[in-house]
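Work Package 3 (structural annotation) set out to generate three-dimensional models for the target panel prioritized at the project kickoff. During this period the team completed the workflow that converts sequence records into C-alpha cells, so that structures can be stored uniformly alongside our sequence database. As a representative example, we reproduce one entry of 174 residues exactly as it appears in the project archive.
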Amino acid sequence: MRVLGVDPGLTRCGIGVVTGGPGVSLRLVATSVVTTPAGAEIGQRLLAIEEKIDEWLRLYQPDAVAVERVFSQHNVRTVMGTAQAGAVAIVCAARRGVPVALHTPSEVKAAVTGNGRADKEQVTHMVTRLLKLTDPPRPADAADALALAICHLWRGGAQSRLAAAADGLARGAS
C-alpha cells in the first residue's frame, strides 16, 4: 500500500509518500515541504498547496491520503490556516477518488513512537529509524507528514482495505 501523508499548514505544509503495511517493510518514496509566504493572499497560498498536492497525487498515485486532524489551539488564526490547508488536501484526494483518513497528532505519535505525547524530535528520530534513513527528514513538517503516512499504513490501512472490500461487495450485490 502507498500512502501520501499531509501535515497541513499555510506557511509550511509537509508532504510525504511511504509504502508498506503491517508486516511489510516501510519504504520512503518521496518527501517535501510546500512553503508559501506569510504575507501572500490566502487564495494564492491555498492554490500553491493545491497545485503541489495534486501534482504528487498524479506522480505517486497513492492508495490513500492521511491528513492530520486539526485540533483546537489557543491561536484561532493558526488553527484556521491549518484547517484550510488540510481541506485542500482532502478535496484534491476526493477529486481523484483517493480515500482520505484523518489522524490526530497523539494517534500518530503513539503509532510511530509508542508515546502519544512524544515531542517532534522523538517523532523525527523514529521516522528516521523506521524508514532506515541516513539523515533525518527536515524540517519537522516533512517528518510529520511521513509519520502520518506510517500511522495510516499501520493503523488505518487495514480499515481502508476492509472498507473498500465492503464497498465492492455492496456494489456487486446491487
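The first strand starts at residue 2 and ends at 7.
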